[in-house]
Amino acid sequence: MFDLIIRNCQIVNGDQKPFMGSVAVKGEKIAAILEADTEITARVDINGTGQVLFPGIIDPHVHFHYTYNYRDNSRDYDTETFSALLGGVTTAIRMHRGQSSIEKHLPPEIEMLEAQSRIDMTMHLTLMTEEHLATFPEYCDLFGINSFKLYLAYKGKAGELQGILGSDDGFLFDAMCRIGRYPGGIVCVHAENSEIIERLVSQLKADGRNDLAAWTEARPGWTEGEAISRAGYIAHNANCPLYIVHMTSAEGVQAVEQLRDRGVQVYAEVCIQHLTHTIDTSLGVLAKVNPPLRYQEDVLALWDAVERGVIDTIATDHVAHTKAKAKVPLWDIMPGNPGTATLLPALLTFGYHAGRLSLSQVASLLSKNTSDIFRLENKGKIVVGGDADLVLVDLSLERQATPEWLGSPSDYSLYQNMTLKGWPTKVVLRGEVVMEDGEVKAEPGYGKFIRRES
After folding, report:
1. How far is the CA of 372 from the CAs of 201, 282, 304, 368, in angstroms?
2. What rounded mean pLDDT belongs to the chain?
3. Where in the chain is the domain with CATH 2.30.40.10?
4. pLDDT per residue as tens digits for the range 198-235
5. Alpha-carbon distance 211 to 280, whole Å?
């Protein structure tokens, strides 16, 4: 007797061709992968005929419990993980930062996460001060954190707006030297040339520009490409793996490929909005994000890189903003947009259904690769002994991603006027059905904080 079985579905893993079969679960783990129509019994019996079974989706870049100046954020882990389950996301990695000591800001955040989250989560720890650099190993051991965020952007006034202290190259090199000594240690870099961007911003402000295109013009793609090249060169000499977050440009793709040709260990992440939107979006300044939405030629270059395997992961950079963010001038708008719940449906719509990606590629980009890079050893794959995180998807199911249905405090979605094709019908997290036919069943606190090898 198994606890749960999903029968007669197409099973998709990132490292093999899809095949027909059934998956049986005992407790929190996958206990057996069986041929279709195998006669067994289970407490919960789900018929997956005509549907596709993915590993639980992992969003490697979210900003749950973000600091807003216009709404209460005290229930973000509850509301944003509720929304995430509607889109099949069972694990997320939060970008955690704070300028005070790690001891002061990290433990309370994890405590809040464990009390509210409906999905499993871990964190990338941002290093911004010399104190952070001196003390981070203690908290790596305590909380099992092995990935670290550093900003080449957000220096000076740009950083003040969001409470970020950008890193100079010396700080970056020192951090990489220390982190590279730890098994599994990896540095995640927001790669933009801050000094050049600040001058361009000043010029555009002086010209009276206040439109979304001005935000893009202030941060041209080559400033991203230059920063990626520089970060990669430093990482290589520090003997530290490098992960580029939210890459957006054709120049960024070129920089990553050149680094790999030189033997640099570099991974690349693209956010789904940079594959589906350009600066011509009808949402206007509401769609402000950093790095910015770009041009059609950048979108095509990113898709080409995704198809060729240059891109390792696709994320969201989720921030649960509301339309209130756009009530101030462009240069003062807090960047970011909601997106975790629409990650899988959008990639299926614009990737799989558009003929760009196979189902196995979708599973690699949204599950397996993130698991491998960040050592989420029991996540991201449908294997015996792994966590029973499973997403049953009806590839033909169409739905408009209205903000009301998505269940987040965000009152808009980048996809609210689009019909997305391919939505989860059942979501299983560690053996329990946590979403069924649009109804979230997991309670706040069901999610766990994942302690990785540190």
Report:
1. 38, 37, 23, 6
2. 96
3. 2-53+386-440
4. 999 999 999 999 999 999 999 999 999 999 999 999 99
5. 11
Contact 117, 77 (CB under 8 A): yes
- Dig out the tokens for 67 from the structure: 């600091």
Q: What is the pLDDT of residues 428-441, one digit of tens each?
A: 999 999 999 999 99
Q: Rounded to whole angstroms, how far apart are CA atoms 335 and 203?
A: 20
C-alpha 62/C-alpha 117 separation (Å) is 13
Which segments of the chain belong to CATH 3.20.20.140? 57-373
Distance CA 150, CA 170 (A): 12
Instruction: Decide if domain 2-53+386-440 falls under CATH 2.30.40.10.
Output: yes
pTM: 0.98
Q: Quick one: tokens of 225?
A: 């490409």
Amino acid at 80: E
CA angle 372, 257, 289 (to 5 degrees): 75
The H-assigned helical ranges of 309-365 are 343-347, 359-363
* 436 DSSP β-pair partners: 426, 439
Alpha-helix residue ranges (DSSP H) falling in 24-179:
76-86, 102-116, 130-143, 157-162, 169-179
In terms of CATH, what superfamily is 57-373? Metal-dependent hydrolases (3.20.20.140)
The reported pLDDT for the residue numbered 280 is 97
* Local structure of residue 253 (DSSP, 8 states): H
